[in-house]
């Protein structure tokens, strides 16, 4: 069933850390907001002919550029910019240049996405409701994601804890009222118990809390072998520190919100912890070197590669529409972009992936651990 997602629903589901690219059609040009792709794919499909017509496909980014989670929005923006620069350096898409990424068209892009079947690719929105409404069994056919979902992460980490690490007793601590945290926690619990494991305790805290010792002491008394902590890195650092102070020293596990945790916890506190991520440092030296050359620093977290892959996803669809000879801005053009993405195989730097029936990527996840305080790839799982 096809239905457009409302702007209010999208923003609520995506959460504050969401960043997306969307193709818009204003006049004779098209515009996009998202988070990136893989340069090698675009370079091979775009060709090397300079833009003869002067046409430009404009791209805008939607995501947080200030505040606590700006690290994600800025990372996505930089990743997207890097890829699009590489596309342009190789002649654009059928001779059309990709315009600058900017935050200006954010609200207009979101509104047009709901009203005009605009193709949208999110790099960092993990809530399942971004692409699928379970209550009405509705797939938002114009919205795709480069990252994996909250249910996927919770299930994957439960599988890893039980099947690979051999844990049979686990506890969970998460922030209540937050879609990301609750989504991962719920799916971890369900999967872990389905596998035959026991959840010995579930603890929660409220937004703004900074003292977790009561919850951690309760968990300690239940004797878990591991604790699943599906929270963002700032809070995770505090939780790990306070866990150590109350004597809770079992390994902690987490989701991709842990990305950026280094510096917020000591090496000892990070020892034997594991979390899932879309990308592991060192996986693609070409991307990492190009990022450092452009921005003068190492990529900050896994959202830059996701921005890169969201961009290639969107450009993959644009390439399909351009190859069909369709006029930018028409309904046929937008549908061709959507169909191109839906039926494509995306060769990104976070992996090669296709899309399932809910427009979520089908790919493996990286399991990372910490060595001397730095995240390193343990294995793909």
Describe the 3D structure.
The chain is of the alpha/beta class and 381 residues long. It has 2 domains: 7-148 and 283-364, 3-Layer(aba) Sandwich (Rossmann fold), CATH 3.40.50.2300; 150-277, 3-Layer(aba) Sandwich (Rossmann fold), CATH 3.40.50. The chain contains 12 helices and 20 strands. The protein has helices at residues 7-14, 39-46, 70-89, 106-116, 150-164, 179-195, 213-222, 233-246, 267-270, 285-295, 303-323, 331-342; strands at 20-22, 24-26, 29-32, 56-59, 61-62, 97-98, 120-122, 132-133, 138-139, 143-145, 169-175, 198-205, 226-228, 252-254, 274-277, 346-348, 351-355, 361-362, 366-371, 374-380. The strands form 5 sheets. A 7-stranded mixed β-sheet has the order 12-11-13-14-15-19-20, with helices on both faces. Strands 5-1-7-10 form a 4-stranded mixed β-sheet, sandwiched between helices. Strands 2-3-4-6 form a 4-stranded mixed β-sheet. Strand 17 (351-355) and strand 18 form a beta hairpin. Helix 2 (39-46) runs parallel beside helix 3 and helix 5 (150-164) packs parallel to helix 6.
Oligomer: single chain
Q: What is the CA–CA distance across the termini? A: 32 Å
Q: Give the fraction of residues assigned to helices.
A: 25-40%
Q: Which class of the largest domain in CATH terms?
A: Alpha Beta
Whole-number total of structural domains: 2
Average pLDDT: 82
How much strand content do the residues show?
A: 15-25%
The class by helix and strand makeup works out as alpha/beta
Question: In CATH terms, what is the fold-level topology of the largest domain?
Answer: Rossmann fold
Say how many strands there are.
20
What sort of overall outline do the alpha carbons produce when their principal axes are compared? globular
Instruction: Assign the CATH superfamily of the largest domain.
Output: Response regulator
Can you summarize the main beta sheet?
7 strands, mixed
**Stretches where pLDDT falls below 50 for ≥5 residues?**
1-17, 24-54, 101-111
Radius of gyration, CA atoms, in whole angstroms: 21 Å
Strand order of the largest sheet: 12-11-13-14-15-19-20
Query: Any guess at the CATH architecture of the largest domain?
Result: 3-Layer(aba) Sandwich
Please tally the helical runs, counting DSSP H or I stretches of 4 or more residues. Answer: 12
